[in-house]
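We examine the record.
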Amino acid sequence: MDFRRLRYFVAVAEQLNFRRAAEALSTSQPSLSQQIRALEAELGFPLFERTKRRVQLTRAGSVYLAGVREAIAEVEACELRARQAQAGLRGTLSIGAVGMVMIDHLPRLVRRFRSDFPEVTLTVTILRNPDIVGALRAGQIELAFANAVDPGRDVETLALWPLPWMIVLPADHRYAGRERVRLADLSGETLITHPRRGGAGGAKGELLAFCHERGFTPGAITEVAEVADLETLIGLVACGLGVTILPAPFAKSAPPAVAFRPIAGPERGPRISACWRRGEENALVRNFLAPAAPMV
């Protein structure tokens, strides 16, 4: 069925005049008449009764008109939805993120996006940092927020939010009242850390190198179980079993029993990057990331 013929049919049915319908359609009257005859031939019954004085719909034409109007309206609605999807105004967007970005930055982006694009269905899945890129490559998520990832050539990245490290002390620690804490002053104290945070070398990885750089030599290192989350480290500090170093967002949810303090010296810490599959033209991803730059 030629969709153009359906539009021509509706125009004639509304005008009940071939000349006026042709003018409304910016076509010639002979061409319009030819298209209507072709439509009637395809259907196998007349749509109009034509006399020299008037044109009117047949009974079958009246019934057909109602259905054609519905069909045109549905096709136009489909076209609109498709255009909205192409522009990133409609569709679904699946996001994967490490837990630390859920404390501050990502919730602000999600709330803004949901307000600006109410027709988009958004899902957020919390993943371990080592699993993020794999989930992206497997198509389980379309956009990821992670730190210290090695994306490879098939993944695009955009560096976003630095998360400076802070020292976490028991609230009654002798340095808890300081505005900033020199790590060197904590030498000899127990450092509580997580095996995952240092990569293959466990606590001997990046974090311990940072401590060494700042002159902090722990008297002992306590590694929590692999399955424990970073909130467990805060709880152990609250118990008075040592100190730990965590990204600044965790300070927002800290209990009164601990004190987060900035570390003296140049800021260091993980940086969150947005990641997505290279070469994919995804307007939803672009729209989601657009407000992120001012937050950097």
Observations:
- The chain has nine helices and twelve strands.
- The chain has three domains: 3-86, 91-161+271-295, 165-262.
